[in-house]
Amino acid sequence: xxxxxxxxxxxxxxxxxxxxxxxxxxxxxxxxxxxxxxxxxxxxxxxxxxxxxxxxxxxxxxxxxxxxxxxxxxxxxxxxxxxxxxxxxxxxxxxxxxxxxxxxxxxxxxxxxxxxxxxxxxxxxxxxxxxxxxxxxxxxxxxxxxxxxxxxxxxxxxxxxxxxxxxxxxxxxxxxxxxxxxxxxxxxxxxxxxxxxxxxxxxxxxxxxxxxxxxxxxxxxxxxxxxxxxxxxxxxxxxxxxxxxxxxxxxxxxxxxxxxxxxxxxxxxxxxxxxxxxxxxxxxxxxxxxxxxxxxxxxxxxxxxxxxxxxxxxxxxxxxxxxxxxxxxxxxxxxxxxxxxxxxxxxxxxxxxxxxxxxxxxxxxxxxxxxxxxxxxxxxxxxxxxxxxxxxxxxxxxxxxxxxxxxxxxxxxxxxxxxxxxxxxxxxxxxxxxxxxxxxxxxxxxxxxxxxxxxxxxxxxxxxxxxxxxxxxxxxxxxxxxxxxxxxxxxxxxxxxxxxxxxxxxxxxxxxxxxxxxxxxxxxxxx
Length: 527
What we know:
Layout: H1 14-69, H2 73-83, E1 91-96, E2 99-107, E3 113-119, E4 122-124, H3 130-133, E5 135-145, E6 151-162, H4 163-213, H5 233-303, E7 311-318, E8 326-332, E9 338-345, H6 349-366, H7 371-385, E10 392-399, E11 404-410, E12 415-418, E13 426-428, E14 447-451, E15 457-461, H8 463-466, H9 477-487, H10 493-507, E16 517-524
Antiparallel strand pairs: 1-2, 1-6, 2-3, 3-4, 5-6, 7-16, 8-9, 9-10, 10-11, 11-14, 12-13, 12-15, 15-16
């Protein structure tokens, strides 16, 4: 244990900081008391001087009244000059019917400080320091008493004194008070700092030094004794620290024993985890291979079709994972017409993909029934055999060689037609409920008709394309698809689809797609 406790400078020690707080409070109190003391002493001395002025009134009244009664100016001036030589009087003023006379510093009728040398000639006094040069006075009537005892007022007198006189009387007392307060303050500072370093800083240094040396390798050598008497807070800290070290030593020994067996357990668990990981990798590879096979099967089921002689067709099929929840199917219907089916099952992955396979089988089974009956059949099977959280949106379009377009929508985004004559793209809205939610009495679809002209284009799509968001969370929207098609109407189908995807990617500012994307586009060629 280090014996010195000077590693913390005096100015940074807790004793000094505590002293600063205590001293600041003490200094405020001491200054306040000193100022009150000095103020009280000042006013007491001032009152004593006023009392002296009253006494001098009685002393000099007889001589002044006689000189005024006898109109003895020289005698009056002699008395006035004698009065102002008294230590507490700085001026005297006599006011009679004949005018004003006086000596020393007085106040004239304009309340200005003037200096008189006995008589009435005055010189204006410059007030350099009003605090010390300010006047105060005692005013009295001058009464003349004759031989018979008759009393006559012959004038008024005023004895002046000043703050300077007061300060001259109390300056040594003030100086003693200030020196006394200064000596007591410095003494208190030194004594408090010295005692604080012994009683507070040294024990705290012992604690901090031991804390800095503390580590698991030298716990046996750590024990502190702050050498303080009594059961105070520092003693409690010492006992708590030593108890903590003892507990750490016990825990370290237990930890050492545990570590000796832990390595064997880790090796055993590592081997088991390695074997489990190997098994998981093999299973994962099998699942991946199965998903790739399912992906190829699903792709072949949906992408194999023959272009009708009066239609050009282009598609984009982008599953979000190995297998997709989207399905499209293009197949001949009747009387040289073709059906274009596009469906979007809820969710992603295998469960959604199985819904698309089921839809493909049902289309093979009922694909040549009426458009309404095809949708009703899909709804019946889905509603009976799929879980409640599984359903599908779909759109079924039928086109004949004469350009007659019929569509049925089951909760799916509408088909968009781009007229070849330059008119704005047309959104073919339709009413219909999702497949697999409601039984037949509630399930409803409505057929929409449109007459295609030579060169008209149409596009079917799933929500994976128009629900993509930019970094601000704003979706691209069906309006975004319509605006793109309007600006690029003169390009071929492959260009439209590939550049539409690029345009959406630019809009999303690099934000990844989170849904399957399927687009089917056609162009009507009049036979």
